[in-house]
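Changelog entry: the GAF domain-containing protein record was regenerated in this release. Current contents:
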Amino acid sequence: MQLKRDNQHPINDPLQNADALLWAMIENLPGGAAFVVDSDLRYRLAEGEALAAAGFKPEDWVGKTIFEALPPGLAATYEVQYRKALAGEPFEVEHAAHNRFYISRGTPLRSANGEVYAVLVVSYDITDRKQAEAALRDKEAKLAQELADTKQLQHISSQLIQSENINALYEQILDAAIAILLSDMGSMQMFYPEQNELRLLAWKGFDPASAVFWEWVRVDSSSTCGVVFNTGERVIVADVETCDFMAGTEDLDACRLSGIRAMQSTPLISRDGRVMGMISNHWREPHQPSERELRLLDVLARQAADLIDRRQAEADAAADLEDMQRLHELGARLVAEDDIQTLYQEIVATAIALTRADAGSIQILDEATQDLVLLATQGSTPEMIQHFHRVNAGSNTSCGRALVTGDRTFVDFDVPQSEDPDGSMRLHLEAGYLSAQSTPLITRSGKAIGMVSTHWRKHHRPSDRELRFLDLLARQAADLIE
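Regenerated structure tokens:
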């Protein structure tokens, strides 16, 4: 094999004397290539496996300047290096080309008198090495992230034991969830079974209007939270704009307002299987979290569920103590108070407090007519007082229904007009009430003698704990009336 010659390069070109050496080197360059570039930055030689692998032939290079043979950016880089070598200084540079990585080493070629007449460049394919290095860096980064996430989870575990600032713990859990899933936003909610709603405990990154919209979320809503409650499983929406169950909903509008394109919601399950709340992450771009991230999130979700469960247990214990004291004080007043009307008002006030209601009433049963007669009320409008002064079994209200069944009854007032023939439901709605309960007052001999009712300005059902205390109050009220 011989170097190509043309009129610009005479036979006595010093390059001709290096042919044997150059070709021996080229033949021993598996996966590489060799180039000779003269002082005009023109390729005089281009051979090697790397050329063929990239789809080139020697004639695509030989006789052309680097500006003709290379892309502009790469030509600019190599111009600096080649001129450095032509000035007598070797160079080494790494670069990417044709989806591969190369390292190129340039050496000045000198004539017998020491003059640099060209540059010999030997390029090696280092793609495998670069990929291995990238994989190692990626593995090290993941290990570092896992270590940081594990330390954060350990820190939260210790705080669950030591910290008394419950709101700060909510914030820490939310920060950890955002860090673990590398999300842009996040939220944490607590489930209130008596209202069938989730309340927003902490949030990061939302538009304030979205946060207001999500302050209370019904679990039967068209949201990821609603789907989680229906399925009992985590829900991931990789793109809210293509999610069928969110299409055309106010929930989607709230997502758009905060710039949310993807989200996930994970239920917080207590150790006895109860849903305690929800933890959610949100991204500004379509996104699918990794399995590793979700595994770590599940550990965090367990901690969050334990925290909420503990808080609810503590709140219930404190409420038990408060309500027991309230009933004890009422019992003392029932003995000491001479004004019976004042006692009735005290019973109504206690019923409202025990059930965390907005209004209430107490009625006595007229044995002759079997009507319920209003004894005392709080929070009722004059129209309600007049309308419900006497209630019979035909009333569609909670007290009317309870009178028929003899059992505690719950009702919601926002029903179709066809279900409200006497307008009783409408009167409650006009007064701002959406739901109520009525508990019969039963004597120790088992005889129904009255009713105690409470009303709420939202859809609500008292907790089992609240109803137990209401039953104790009903016993006291029945003893007083009897």
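Residues 1-11 have pLDDT under 50 and may be disordered.
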